[in-house]
Structure formats: C-alpha cells, structure tokens
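Re-running ATP-dependent DNA helicase PIF1 to confirm reproducibility after the cluster update. Everything else is unchanged from the original entry.
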Amino acid sequence: MSGLATVKRDFSSNTDKNEPEPSSSRTTGKRMDSSALMKAIMEGCASRDANGGSTSMASASLLSQKRPPQTAVGPPAKRRTLPDSFQSSSYRATTTSTKPPSSSYSSQRSSALSSSSAANSSQTSSGPSTSSSSSRPPPLVVSAAQSSKAAVKPATIFLSSEQKQILQLVKDGKSIFYTGSAGTGKSVLLREIIKAMHKKYAKSLEAVAVTASTGIAACNIGGITIHSFAGIGLGIESAEELATKIRKNKKSSSRWLRTKVLIIDEVSMVDGELFDKLARIGSIMRKRTEPFGGIQLVITGDFFQLPPVSKGNRQMKFAFEAQLWNQVVERKLMLTKVFRQKDQDFVDMLNEMRFGTLSQKSIQKFKALSRDIIYEDGLGPTELFPRREDVDSSNGVRMSRLRGNNRTFYAKDGGNAGEDQRKRLLDNFMAPDVLYLAVDAQVMLIKNVDETLVNGSMGRIVRFVDPQKYKDEVLEDATFTNDKEGKPASKGGPTKPSSSKVDVQMWPVVEFTVPGGKREVMVMPETWKVELPNGEVQASRQQLPLILAWAMSIHKSQGQTLDRVKVDLARVFEKGQAYVALSRATSLDGLQVLNFNPDKVLVHEKVRAWARTLETLVDKEDA
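Result of re-run:
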C-alpha cells in the first residue's frame, strides 16, 4: 500500500461528535496558499479571543481504544519484518511542530470547540447561508459507518465494453476524440491508453507525448502542458513564426520529430485557434502535408465543463470549431455508462443539468437538497468554491479552531526546469508546498492506494506518531501491501535524511471513512513529478498525500469523486461551474446544494448542439 501503514481497529463505538463549529466567513478558493492559510488562522484566533468564552474538547480519544480480540473474520495478521526505509524516521521533506506566535494562541484556539449536538448540526456550513433556514427541508441524518474486517485488495481496473472499443481504436492507430458526462470513466480510460501506448512504443522514449491544456490536468496524468510540449511559449505568434522559434530549441524540435502519439487531456480549455496553429506547426516541423505532420492524436475532455479562456476582445473558439479538427479527428465518441453515481434519478438530473434542459421535477429535487446533512461519524462535507482565496480562508479558519497537537510539513521539491517554469509546474500539484495539519483536522487522500483508499477518500487526523514507536503496533496488526519482498511501503517514502527542525520525525495517523467501515493508517510521503516524453523530470515534489478537506476549489475538484459535497450556487459565475461542482458527488444523500437557481446552470448553446452529433458505441456485452 503506497505510503500508508494500516492498523485494523473497531471504531464503531468511538465517533467523535465534537466537530469544530464551522466558519462564519463566506469563502471560496483554488489552491492551498501557506501565507493565506496562516493569515486566516491568526484572524480566526484573534476574533474568538475578542469575543471570549471557550468550550471543552472531545473527551474520547482514539489512542485510548483497545484493540478488539481476534475474530474469525480472517486469519491472524502475520508478523512481518519492516523494510529498512521504514526503520528510519527520515523524510526528504522537512517537518516542524507549528509554533504559535504568541502564548495566547492555544487559549484562543480552544474557544472554537462547541458541544457535540451543536457541532453535528452545524458542521455542514462554513458560513452564513443566503437561504432561509426556516424554508429548508428537515436535515438528513447519515449513520456512522461500522467497522469492517474485510481484507483489502489492490485496486483492479475493469473497463466497460465501450471503453475497451475505444482503447482498441487507439491501439489500431486511429486518431480519436472521446468524451462523456462526469463519472463515465474518461480519466480511467486515459490512464489505460497511456499505459498501452508506452507498451507499444517501449523502445522509443519520446514516441508518446502526454499533455493537457492546464498544469493541474497535466500533473494528474503525469504529463506536461500542450504549450510546454510544443515549445511555443504563450503561442501568440503565427504558426510559421512559432515553427522558426521551435527550430532554435533542440529539445522542442526533437519532440516534434520523434513523437508518434500525442495525447491531449482537458481539450475543452484548448482554444480552436491554438489547435489550428499546433496542427500547422506539426506539418512544418515534420515536413509533411497532414495536420500535426501525421502524428496520431488521442484527445479527451468535456466541453460542457470549464471552457477556454478568451484573450482580449477575440471571441472564444472551442477546439471542435477549429478549421482542421474534422481533418485530424477520425472518430468522435461519447461514453455513456456512468460509474460515479449509482442512482439513475441522480444521473438523469445531472444529464439534464449538463445540457441545460432542466425539468421542473429536477429543479424541485435540486432545491430540496438545501437541507442540512448530519454525518454521525463526525466528518463534514467538502465545500466547493470558485475562487482559491476563499478556500484558503475557509480551511484556515477551521484549522485555527482545532486545539492540541499540530505540525507543519514542508515539501521537498526538485526538477530540471528553469526556476520560473518549475515554480509554475509545482503550483499545479495537488500536494501543497507547506502542509499544516492538526489533530482532528479533516483531510483528503490525494493518491490512489487500493480498492477502498482512493484519491478523494476522507478522513480525520487522530494523532502524530514516531514510526519507531508505532512499529510494535504495525507488527501486531498492520499490513504492508508492498512489503512482500521487503520493499519499502512507498516509492516516495523515506529516503536519505534531510535537515529537520525536530529531533524525531512524526507522521500523521488518519482515520479514513471507507465503504462499510473505517480504517486507521499512518500516512507517509509520496512523490509527484512532471516528465518530458524522454523521461527528463521537469519538476518533482515529495510531500504527504493529504490536503485539508473542509474546502476545495471547483477547478481542482475536476476529476475527483467525493462522497460528501456542499455547494452554494450563489457564488458560481462561469459556464460549467455548477455542473462540475454538483457532479463530483456520488449520491443525493451526500450532496447539499444552497441557493439552487436554474438560471445559474449556464451552458454554451454551440456545445449543446455539437454534442448531439457525437457517435456512441454499441455495448457488445449487452448486444
């Protein structure tokens, strides 16, 4: 299991309901900014100190729970020898205990904790709502999950019939575009396509170029931006001028000549004019008449989500409106099988929202989602915001209300790109450069681990531990899934020690909510990197695979699957934002929507018309 050590325990009788009272500020945001976060923490503390008053912390502690006796659910856990890398407490990222700027900091923070009944009823909001609470439906109570002893298997990828057909088209050398509504497995399929293409061209490092329109999307698939691949900078010059510029850069020129497959993700944010320029540049660089010089293209994205950014007064142009789009793309395919949502009513509501054709029945159902949701396990929803500064503020205020052990984790960054370019790449990583954590902080896992711990899994920090002391617990009832041959539990795990401001390295132990129960794991660092097609690392970051999860930006939530979501639609301002935000949820029971207004469901008419022309594939498994 990458970067995690699991301890099986029964938490069914140990739900902590003393969740800190939500923020009173109305906030939104994009990415974790350390200075903004600390500013919010300090402001939150000062405000509470002025108001006076304090409440007590939860009396129950996870550390006081005894392990249950061995049951007949499975065989006794085997005693295993820890890998050498785990014996060391080293970490390439520096961690420190967070030092308060004044002696009054702890007393200020303690005033944020409310009584258990009040906390449960209020934890779903991070600020005053513009909806009248008296007009809301009664709250929904979601029962706490029971502990499960079921064995956890490594995640296995299963493709649907239509996904398999698209994968085969790519293997056959076809240039394709595929799309689908949120939750249809576009990202899963793309990862399988990338693996298949790397296998097909295993002897040529630069044959497969993995790119995306934005830095965030590129990082998510282990690629680079389309601008970086092409070597065009901002790309404002003509195709001929850009080709002359590229020839002067040996690396960029080599990429164009050696690439056999060009993969472009999040094409919805690629401007049509840029697409035509790239097609012509490929022809010029490779001295061939075909667009892109005959390179096979695999293009994906959802044009119903966030659109291209228009420059100046020029009218925005989608990639499918490009002059050479139809000449380049041989097949334009629509995925139809939805995996994220199991409730067909919810799927239908989202599809109506996607096309901007909401029925009165769906409108009433969305409005009914304004009710509060009380989660009995103590974890609240992730609130999605359009702007990053408000995400930072919301998470910061919540952090300021936590009392007790807290720590700061500094990332270790590397890479061969120039300083400015590397900084831009690093800013797009989900993992922050500085991560502030505290006991009781609500966090989200940002790496896939196995079938139950996945990117988007929610949990709560229960303590920080020294791995040397934790070792005895691990040997008794933990499992290291990557430890069968004495290998380290994480590729990005502890390596050569670096400077540390504390004598003993302490890792967070997180109680994750998983299907059918809870799992407690000690989280260790992972590595993210951006590579050129030839394998050269442009930027890398080693950090804990966690982020604070009270709030998250809509932009960064793209591609995420979240069990608990809260959205205030009064704040959305861009076409596609409302659809992206609401479609992150897996079910209606885990979705709270404030100020639903059908006028906020904004769809580009030309996208709606064009989408109806896409080809769907026959499900051979059902045929």
